[in-house]
Design brief:
Elements lengths: L1 E9 L5 H19 L6 E8 L10 H4 L9 E5 L10 E9 L10 E2 L16
Parallel strand pairs: 1-5, 2-3
Antiparallel strand pairs: 1-4, 2-4
Length: 123
């Protein structure tokens, strides 16, 4: 079974270092809370809002040990009026037997506002 593991965060600014740090922190928590092993990943989608242009957030994933061959796609998030600025979203398609309700979706920083129903894990 392939499950989607979601996460989102915000960067402090559009500086490369800030975008990569925020993305790496999010990925680290997603990996930890879901016990993710790179060899079980089908693919990863990473999106950023249109105010992120200094770096591809997916570059942070490439810096993780063992993730060299994980297929990843970076894309621009829809530009919706009133949307959360400097927001990075991640969707990991993961092969697991875990039931849907056991998947830990992680929302950090200002992105907690996107899914308050999931609690504050990752804040």
């Amino acid at each position: 079974m392939i499950r989607g593991i979601r996460g989102a965060t915000t960067a402090a600014s559009n500086k490369e270092q800030e975008v990569l740090l925020s993305t790496k922190q999010l990925l680290d928590e997603m990996i930890l809370h879901n016990r993710i092993m790179p060899e079980r990943i089908a693919s990863v989608f990473i999106s950023g809002t249109n105010d992120i242009g200094s770096v591809f957030p997916a570059k942070a994933l490439r810096q993780l040990e063992g993730w060299t061959y994980v297929p990843v796609m970076c894309m621009q998030e829809l530009d919706v009026e009133g949307g959360l600025p400097l927001c990075i979203r991640v969707m990991i398609h993961y092969n697991t037997d875990e039931p849907q309700e056991e998947i830990q979706h992680i929302y950090k920083n200002e992105a907690i506002r996107l899914r308050p129903d999931l609690g504050t894990k990752g804040s």
